[in-house]
């Protein structure tokens, strides 16, 4: 439990620090850090539940996408301001390093194993962002439909 809290603390710091490097507006830094930390918490909990690397990255990316779009609406800023810093904990840098190292050492079987991990993680992140966009669009359509139903029922009540 203590390691999880330490991981989350360092995830927040890394996300905010990356946002500073990208020169994000100061009012977006805290929200980007929170989005990164919450999505990394979901990732860690799924990894602890042995759900698999791809599933954990997919859920983390969906959370980043959905939370970033909601934060962008709330703070009236572009979505990418929240997406990019929050994505930092999910970048498969360790696997990419191991892949290149093992290719250089001519250990191709291990290198290909890491290559497939990198491809799976990158694909899960991309598909997670796609699912988040789909979820937000469905949510908006549902809200529009409910608003139109409410207007129609208000007109019917006024008629009587």
TrEMBL record:
UniProt protein name: Threonine/Serine exporter ThrE domain-containing protein
Membrane topology: Multi-pass membrane protein
A biological process term (GO) from this entry: succinate transport
Transmembrane parts of this sequence: 5-25, 45-67, 79-98, 110-132
UniProt keywords, alphabetically: Cell inner membrane, Cell membrane, Membrane, Transmembrane, Transmembrane helix
UniProt-annotated location(s): Cell membrane
InterPro entries: ThrE_2, ThrE_Dicarb/AminoAcid_Exp
Sequence ranges assigned to domain Threonine/Serine exporter ThrE in this UniProt record: 8-134
A Pfam cross-reference name: ThrE_2
Record-level GO cellular component terms: plasma membrane
Record has Transmembrane helix as a keyword: yes
Taxonomic source organism: Secundilactobacillus kimchicus JCM 15530
Family: Belongs to the ThrE exporter (TC 2.A.79) family.
Chief location bin: membrane
């Amino acid at each position: 439990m203590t390691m999880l809290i330490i991981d989350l603390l360092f995830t927040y710091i890394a996300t905010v620090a990356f946002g500073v490097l990208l020169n994000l507006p100061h009012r977006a830094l805290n929200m980007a850090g929170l989005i990164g930390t919450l999505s990394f918490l979901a990732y860690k909990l799924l990894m602890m539940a042995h759900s698999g690397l791809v599933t954990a990255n997919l859920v983390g990316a969906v959370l980043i996408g959905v939370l970033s779009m909601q934060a962008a609406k709330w703070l009236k800023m572009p979505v990418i301001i929240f997406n990019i810093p929050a994505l930092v904990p999910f970048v498969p840098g360790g696997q990419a390093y191991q892949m290149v190292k093992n290719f250089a050492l001519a250990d191709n079987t291990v290198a290909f194993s890491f290559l497939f991990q990198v491809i799976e993680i990158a694909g899960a992140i991309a598909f997670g962002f796609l699912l988040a966009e789909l979820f937000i669009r469905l949510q908006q359509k549902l809200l529009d439909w409910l608003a139109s139903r409410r207007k129609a029922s208000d007109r019917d009540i006024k008629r009587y």
